[in-house]
Design a protein that fits this description.
This protein is an alpha/beta fold and about 425 residues long. The chain contains 17 helices and twelve strands. Helix 8 links the parallel strand 5 and strand 6. Helix 3 packs parallel to helix 4 and helix 8 packs parallel to helix 9.
Length: about 425
């Protein structure tokens, strides 16, 4: 690790040198198409007859909007298997009307994603409309196509900040992103954007390849001017489910979270804001350090459909952008108003109504069950095909360790190969004694 404090943050590798070399050199799985065409949007979904008080009270602060599924990368951990545009993506006129409806619903920040948002020809018009409606336009990008001209155009349109995805040092990032040179392109995108006056942050997927490189990565992104760093655990959605050996095992969290706590302290020294994603937690001893920016000081229950809104490029509305389309699409903006879908769709009401009775497995008997309610819906849903039992929990890993046990996730069903798909895993509880850490 580079930097003055390099030796103070120990990097722990869950893989042996031989296992790491094998995974880095493993070719892309060839049994599924790299970028499948998404099925047509599900239309005319039923809504409840009336909105309840809890539905009218809940309002999305943040919308994450996939404006196209077209992409110029083919990342091996991409949950949406992005590449081709969706059939019947919203027209410019429909997008601008959706911007108006988001503003009226109370949205304050709109993050444009893809695919790659800049591959849609009218992306800057959408940015300008978001700004005109007094919401904050931001973008998350792989950065491959952001040159000086695009950066200047983004600044002129009113884009406030851009989060560039960087998932490790060069070899690891390029392997995960499926393209040699993608790491260099991401750093160049940061330079172009900052040169045009657009601040940049970085978001990072944590898995068995990227985990040991996090300390060096932090030093790198700080040196390249990142104002913030958001981290998220890779889960088996889309292409990430094709390579389960890359995913963290629950017992890897025992080494990960102490390292994250030290990295949070290093972020403070570097003046880089640290944001753990919605599946990083929960209730372990490092939560006050990791989430000191929130009033509770710890992760809480899933906010999909309460404070967050997800939108797909064909007008499908979800409570969270990461959730699978088939199970969690609540309606289409071509059929109903955004307000009606938000307030009256059963899929978006899920977390408003969820109680401990929906929990199962370890989470049902956990001390924190009623506070946490299995945390991130997306994580448990893509592992097991149903929400309510989250294996990526630091508290849970620690409790198993105290009992001399650990959990291991094993894939038992492969995904079908569609955008936002997932397979199915089983969790095995085994003795720690005699196992490899």
């Amino acid at each position: 690790m580079q930097g003055r404090r390099g030796n103070d943050v120990a990097a722990t590798d869950p893989l042996s040198r031989e296992e790491r070399a094998e995974l880095l050199g493993k070719p892309r799985p060839r049994h599924l198409p790299v970028a499948p065409v998404a099925p047509p949007a599900r239309r005319h979904l039923p809504l409840a007859d009336e909105a309840r008080e809890v539905d009218r009270t809940a309002r999305p602060n943040h919308a994450v909007w996939e404006i196209t599924l077209a992409c110029d990368l083919a990342c091996r951990h991409c949950g949406s298997r992005a590449g081709h545009a969706r059939p019947e993506e919203l027209t410019t006129e429909q997008c601008l009307d959706l911007v108006r409806q988001m503003s009226e619903l109370g949205v304050r920040e709109v993050t444009l994603i893809g695919g790659e948002a800049y591959l849609r020809e009218d992306w800057l018009e959408i940015v300008r409309a978001i700004r005109a409606h007094k919401m904050q336009p931001t973008i998350t990008t792989g950065g491959r196509g952001i040159d000086e001209a695009r950066a200047r155009a983004a600044k002129a349109a009113g884009l406030l900040t851009v989060s560039v995805s960087i998932d490790g040092l060069e070899a690891t990032h390029d392997r995960l992103r499926g393209l040699a040179g993608s790491h260099a392109a991401a750093l160049a995108a940061m330079k172009h954007l900052q040169g045009a006056g657009v601040p940049t942050s970085v978001n990072t997927q944590i898995n068995r390849l990227s985990m040991p490189e996090l300390p060096e990565l932090l030093e790198l992104i700080a040196a390249h001017g990142a104002h913030s760093w958001q981290i998220q655990l890779t889960v088996p959605m889309g292409r990430a489910a094709d390579e389960p050996d890359v995913l963290l095992q629950p017992y890897d969290l025992l080494a990960l979270f102490p390292m994250l706590a030290k990295l949070r302290e290093r972020c403070d020294e570097l003046k880089v804001r640290f944001f753990p994603g919605n599946n990083v937690g929960y209730f372990g001893p490092h939560e006050p350090t990791l989430r000191g920016h929130v009033i509770s000081g710890h992760a809480s229950s899933c906010k999909a459909g309460q404070r967050t809104l997800g939108i797909e490029a064909d007008g499908t509305i979800k409570g969270c952008p990461s959730l699978s389309t088939a199970a969690w699409g609540g309606g289409n903006i071509r059929d109903h108003s955004l307000r009606d879908i938000w307030e009256r769709s059963a899929a978006l009401r899920y977390t408003r109504d969820r109680t401990v009775n929906e929990l199962w497995g370890y989470c049902r008997s956990c001390y924190y069950a009623d506070h946490c309610r299995a945390g991130c819906t997306w994580t448990s849903d893509v592992f097991f095909g149903r929400p309510g039992n989250n294996p990526y929990c630091h508290h849970r890993a620690l409790e198993h360790e105290r009992a001399g046990k650990r959990e291991r996730l094993v894939k038992v069903e492969s995904p079908p190969g569609q955008p936002f798909d997932h397979g199915r895993f089983e969790v095995i509880v085994e003795d720690m004694k005699g196992t490899q850490p």
